[in-house]
Amino acid sequence: MKTYKELIESFNPNKISFGTNDDTNDSAIETVDMIGMDFTFFKLKDLFYVVYTELGEVKFAASKVFSDYPEDYTMKRISSSNILNIFNSVIFIVEKIIRKNNMSYIFFSGADPKLDKVYRKMTKNKSFIKLMDKLGFIHYQEINKNFIFSKIDINSIPNSFN
Fold first, then answer.
1. Contact at 8 Å (CB) between 18 and 51?
2. Domain boundaries defined on the chain
């Protein structure tokens, strides 16, 4: 069995089928402009997951049955032995949402001690940092247990570096 350190260092986005249809395989991402939310679903083993960004915050939740309503999923932990696979799948999908919307920032909320610990480690993970860099997120900051990644418009920097 892997240690916690080995587990978090094993982070690497996992390509997975996702979508908004019942089979979660149409690669669709739904947008609700009124509340600034993008979401989609995936299935892993016997559970369904919703992955969404809401005003830049990355969230995910699970359900034992498929529903096309994100609010039907729970953020409470449902027993699963695939924590790393789930997390890697979530990050793969978040990358798709970021690209779809050309998001200028995202953040992960360390809402409870376990999430805080995972996100704190994730921000130091070489694979994750490389992915954020590839997506153009070159600035990282932690504020009140929110782990924030943002893009910096290089054209907005004064031309005093010549």
1. yes
2. 4-155
- CA gap 49, 41 in Å, rounded: 5
Q: Of 30-34, 69-73, 101-105, 113-117, give the lowest mean pLDDT range.
A: 113-117
Mean pLDDT is lowest, of 6-10, 62-66, 114-118, 126-130, for 6-10
* Main-chain dihedrals φ then ψ at residue 79, nearest 5 degrees: -50, 125
Residue in 18, 150, 21, 20 with CA at minimum distance from that of residue 86: 18
Residue 53, strand partner residues: 38, 58
Contacts 24+ apart (CB under 8 A), 114-118: 116/145, 118/8, 118/87
Judged by phi (left if over 0) then psi (alpha if -120 to 50, else beta), residue 56 lies in: left
Give the helix/strand (H/E) hosting 68. none
Closest CA to 119 of 92, 98, 149: 149
Closest CA to 125 of 6, 8, 1, 37: 8
